[in-house]
Amino acid sequence: MSKRVSLTQHLIEQQRLHNKIPSELRLLIEVVGRACKSISHAVGKGALGEVLGSAGSENVQGEVQKKLDVISNEILLEANEWGGHLAAMASEEMETIHRIPNRYPLGEYLLMFDPLDGSSNIDVNVSIGTIFSVLKAPEGMTEPSEKDFMQPGTKQVAAGYAVYGPQTVLVLTTGDGVHCFTLDREMGAWVLTQRDIKIPEDTKEFAINASNARHWFPPVQRYVNEMQAGVTGPLKKDFNMRWIASMVADVHRILNRGGIFMYPADAREPDKPGKLRLMYEANPMAFIVEQAGGAATNGKQRILDIQPEKLHQRVAVFLGSKNEVERVTSYHQE
Ligand code: AHM
Ligand code: MG
């Protein structure tokens, strides 16, 4: 059997090779990894742990919070508060930023997360996950505020996601490719199982919630029609469709075998550009996908170049295999 490489060993080796992972950032990633193990454990208990169902509350976006949304948020906050590596945190489930309590030292990083992505799948035992993104706090910052988080995705120093599925995996980038770790449940350790993942540039698979088709704008209508036209249509190939309704699981499939994932803006609410959130979902996934050789746009521009204006900002998302993302983006420009 080949030698097992743990998350810690991988991060230390990356640091030696590229000199890009300071020890505070390594600590941060390891703490997030540890929190994801706890969340995985809670998810795995299901009905036996009384973790299913609604928490009886709503988040800032007016979405009903599930018990596991709240539990996962708490796990991430508690794990990351005391280590001295963070200046502040922000979460899809909290209205504003979470400052580090005075009794702990302040670090130089900002952590953002969607603690439990794919909430509609929790109660039906389908893959769900955690998404996170790390920024550096601005130089000279003393009292962290929301505006310190308003940095484009190009400024991310690390991003990753965990999938709680048949296996629990952690996918990570620090800007030197994308690597995947599988949770060894007996040992409680993250073990490196895929190095330098690359997304094929071409694909015959797409992911979109087709129940919204009647609301799509013309470029998306055109693109999906062309894919559905199959081998006799303008794209000259038959496409297959998959939609898990957990972005983590849909992106994980695309990372492993290619595909294009779309959550477009649509005509229902012209002022609301799509469903997904820039800071907790689109930016970290765009960083990962680009690091794996794919592309990510909002139909008009590269997601990572968008200057955020508010914490819970929404954005249209097209990401995955490069040639298909470029195609649908070009349709928006015509
Ligand atoms: P969540 O963070 O509240 O779980 O919402 C985000 C999820 C994504 O994981 C997924 O791609 C999308 O919402 C599914 O939306 P839909 O319900 O339209 O299928
Ligand atoms: Mg989400």
UniProtKB/TrEMBL annotation:
Main location: cytoplasm
Annotated catalysed reactions: beta-D-fructose 1,6-bisphosphate + H2O = beta-D-fructose 6-phosphate + phosphate
EC number: 3.1.3.11
Domain Fructose-1-6-bisphosphatase class 1 C-terminal, first and last residues per copy: 199-332
Superkingdom: Bacteria
Subcellular location: Cytoplasm
Subunit field text: Homotetramer.
Name this protein carries in UniProt: Fructose-1,6-bisphosphatase class 1
Organism per entry: Herbaspirillum lusitanum
